[in-house]
Amino acid sequence: MSLVRVITPCKIPSSCSNFVIPVFRNPRNNPLAFRTLPKFNITAKYAQITSSASSTTPSATYDDTNTYRWKPMCLYFTHGKCTKMDDPTHLEVFNHDCSRDLPVNAADFKRKRPQDFEFFLVFDLEGKVEILEFPVLIIDAKTMAFVDLFHRFVRPSAMSEQRINEYIENKYGKFGVDRVWHDTALPFNEVIQEFEAWLTHHHLWEKKHGGHLNRAAFVTCGNWDVKTQIPRQCTVSKIKLPRYFMEWINLKDVYQNFYNPKQEARGMRTMMQQLKIPMLGSHHLGIDDTKNVARILQRMLADGAVIPITAWRNPDSIGNVNFLYKNRI
């Protein structure tokens, strides 16, 4: 795999030790909130690797001439830390608008049916030992459109610094985003606090209302994310399992029972192949996987699927999980 070009890292004047940036990333849908953060450098290695990784990666952004071409997300931007929004070269390489990867066409509404929820929170964790990446996309259940993105890299709390560095190099080095991870990663308890503030901003959750989601449900590609890894990470991070993680939608189970395909929907790639949806970005980079799962969800909604809760746990016994379908993955 060859690197096609190198973008000069971001330079911030030495007189500027801090700067103001927006926290929420979709100015068309959300008012901007601001915070002060330290300076950092930015790399385009991720763009180089993903652009050369597959010649079949489809286009997924429109430029001024209406040509359709894919760009990797600026992962500093998803964390609210991009300082190169006025740099044409940087903007040419990186996408800063997640909605461009999730378009909706008028024809998609012909068979669409009413849903039990107003919003779906598409969710795909990364990290087998501890959680390393926590991306969540809001999809409007009525319009099927992208609403907003929450994306954080997560710093493990029960590993040595040497083990963390090895883990991140092996996991994210191949994608070229290991430097971004080190620049932005936060402990899981801080990520959860920021996530809850983000949910509250969208009126999807309030702690005083019992801690459950409001008008929304998590959508995952499998049961592992919410059933296993979230409780495990909460134990490691010594925090109580949030009540909004008591139920979720395993999209694979809904897919299996809606389409009843000859081949079981063992994973995201299988579903995308069967639906003839080209994959965007890098598989096992959480933000890209989340967008691809969201694209499967959009297709299923357009095909007339109703997306119900498929799994729920007893708050008094979180290991006791009930499932909607007998025919499940």
From TrEMBL:
Pfam family of the protein (one): RNase_T
SUPFAM superfamilies for the chain: Ribonuclease H-like
Domain Exonuclease: 116-297
Alphabetized UniProt keyword annotations: Exonuclease, Hydrolase, Nuclease
GO molecular function, one term: 3'-5'-RNA exonuclease activity
Protein name in the entry: Exonuclease, putative
Organism: Ricinus communis
